[in-house]
């Protein structure tokens, strides 16, 4: 028998901690990268949970040499690949999209396609379609092409929210497009002729929430609502909420097309409108079209959100609210007997809340409230 050469090995006291306590502590440290790295080296039992937070978010720029090494590491290291939940991808080639194949926990995907080479896109679309396995919470595609949207959706079994901005046409063949389950669709700066392609890609029985923001530059020569009408008719079978954004720049104030009527859509009970520059409503083409839109909302409308997009910086909120033509808008809303909630807010810049808003300015609230009827005033909330 040989005597041990050293003292007996001591068990790591960290091993005795309850796993529930370990997970609670590591979850609380999710944003402390330095401490999480130390925890991953302290105890093997801590490694899976700390890795889940360390590698939860990833940014890849395929045009950058250092990021090409990162992509190779991502695809080869299971501990990294299996924990990526949020991916921001600045793709150089359409084939770069295939990196999402190997990310089983992916939930949020943001793809920036500016400057992308799409020479291989048609080839990728002709390849056999992989079985969809991903359930994505948020898929955002910026400066992309209609064919690229189709390519990414092929990896997804279901998408909760699809946001498409600055969409471009790559003259895709319609037979490459298929139906995809999307619950909420956000369209921003999309040419009217691409709406028919998007309608082909959206499963109408799955879509519940629709936002359309079409820039007026697509309608300078031919302002009409037909493409929007056809699109909503194609995808709006089970819509619950609709958000129309009519914000224009400069003095031209050309009307942005909206559905000529939402009244046939009995399932819609929530409508939102973001608008700017609505002073002399009854005597302008844009104002008349806006009132026409408000006059043909779904009969079961119960919730209406009105966001006014301010544009004059340096002016106080009260002065801006006094210039808005509120009365015609409120008269149109007065006719909806099932309306139970009217929310009114202001926005400054694309999607940014201003430093001065209704909650901090009772005087601005009063300017708007004085234009409200008694019934509407009782259901109005300023946000």
UniProtKB/TrEMBL annotation:
SUPFAM superfamilies: F-box domain. It comes from the Eukaryota. InterPro entries: F-box-like_dom_sf (IPR036047). This is F-box protein.
């Amino acid at each position: 028998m040989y005597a041990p050469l050293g003292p007996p090995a001591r068990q790591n006291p960290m091993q005795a901690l309850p796993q529930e306590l370990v997970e609670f502590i590591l979850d609380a440290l999710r944003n402390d990268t330095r401490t999480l790295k130390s925890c991953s080296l302290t105890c093997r039992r801590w490694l899976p949970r700390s890795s889940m937070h360390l590698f939860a978010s990833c940014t890849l720029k395929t045009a950058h040499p250092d990021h090409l090494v990162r992509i190779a590491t991502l695809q080869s290291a299971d501990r990294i690949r299996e924990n990526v939940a949020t991916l921001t991808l600045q793709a150089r080639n359409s084939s770069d999209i295939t990196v999402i194949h190997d990310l089983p926990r992916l939930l949020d995907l943001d793809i920036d396609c500016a400057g992308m080479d799409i020479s291989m896109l048609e080839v990728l679309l002709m390849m056999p379609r992989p079985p969809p396995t991903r359930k994505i919470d948020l898929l955002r595609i910026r400066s992309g092409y209609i064919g690229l949207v189709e390519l990414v959706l092929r990896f997804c079994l279901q998408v909760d929210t699809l946001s498409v901005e600055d969409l471009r046409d790559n003259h895709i063949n319609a037979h490459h497009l298929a139906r995809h389950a999307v619950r909420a669709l956000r369209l921003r700066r999309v040419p009217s002729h691409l709406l028919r392609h998007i309608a082909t890609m959206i499963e109408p029985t799955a879509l519940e929430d629709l936002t359309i923001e079409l820039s007026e530059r697509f309608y300078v020569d031919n302002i009409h609502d037909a493409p929007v009408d056809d699109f909503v008719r194609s995808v709006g079978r089970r819509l619950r909420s609709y958000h129309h954004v009519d914000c224009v720049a400069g003095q031209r104030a050309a009307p942005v097309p909206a559905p000529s009527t939402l009244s046939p859509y009995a399932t819609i009970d929530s409508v939102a409108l973001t608008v700017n520059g609505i002073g002399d409503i009854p005597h302008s083409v844009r104002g008349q079209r806006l009132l026409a839109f408000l006059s043909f909302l779904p009969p079961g409308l119960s919730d209406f959100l009105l966001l006014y997009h301010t544009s004059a910086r340096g002016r106080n909120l009260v002065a801006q609210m006094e210039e808005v033509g509120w009365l015609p808008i409120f008269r149109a809303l007065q006719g909806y007997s099932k309306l139970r909630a009217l929310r009114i807010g202001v926005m400054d810049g694309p999607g940014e809340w201003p430093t001065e808003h209704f909650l901090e300015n009772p005087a601005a609230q009063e300017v708007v409230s004085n234009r409200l009827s008694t019934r509407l005033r009782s259901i109005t909330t300023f946000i």
